[in-house]
Amino acid sequence: MSISKLWTLTRPAFALVSRRTMSTPTSDTNTTDAPLFASPQEERKWNQLSAQMSNFHNYFKQEFNQLYKLADGSYERRGLSLTDYLDTARSLDHHLTMHHTIEERFFFPRLAKKLPQFDKNSQDRAHLESHEGIHQGLVNLMALVSKFEEDQTSYSPVEMRACLDSFRDVLFNHLDEEVEDLKGSNLKKHFTLQEFNGLLMH
């Protein structure tokens, strides 16, 4: 199965993020005399992957921030029960876990051939280490959700937000750093156009 088809498995979760709002990341200033890209069209081509990943990552940020915002009990003003609210936490866990599983099994190995930060066997395995930190946070979150589901009177906004705060930085930093590493100005230094086309998520 191609990477393009695998990525479609996660698309239903991202209906709130329209393709029309997907922005191409701002290009880096090239310090050499010769321009890195021959034309704006070529620059957009090489930035497709970063833009697509940014689209996914922006959704995760929205999902996390909404979960955090409603943790104070204001979910009730949205017409949600505690059960409904806790289900949104389970959705965040599901979406991030599926996204990272696809990345690690099918996407990172291709990037790792040229970029060590995506290589599980490299000392500079920054993105894999971030995944580990994020998923430890998700494990803790799911344990807390299970506790609240078993005894809804035990629900604590303070405890919920403290759990989310425990992995907010590693999550948000990773989401931004991965998009940065996938910018065309970086990929063009390491991949041929044919190799790059094989990475795209159509």
TrEMBL record:
It comes from the Eukaryota. Pfam families: Hemerythrin. Residues 52-182 form the Hemerythrin-like domain. This is Hemerythrin-like domain-containing protein. It comes from Crepidotus variabilis.
